[in-house]
Amino acid sequence: MADVAVRPGLTRDTIAGMAWVLLRLRGCMAPGELLEELRRVGVEVGRNRLTRVLLEYNGRLYKRVKEGSTVRYCAVEEV
């Protein structure tokens, strides 16, 4: 995946959209894994902000899946 230069101050919608694309491409991920992937492609976002975005868009863009004691997020197929 190409590096993306993203300016600070991203909106929640932008972060949510980028996270959704990564989840569609790479499958379900834990929040920490998703944070690493976002940073790898050039999106600097804090853990707390990502968690708030995931919770806010849960059910619309993502579904929260609990596997044992691990929480993972998966992209919703139809948006």
UniProtKB/TrEMBL annotation:
It comes from the Archaea. This is Uncharacterized protein.
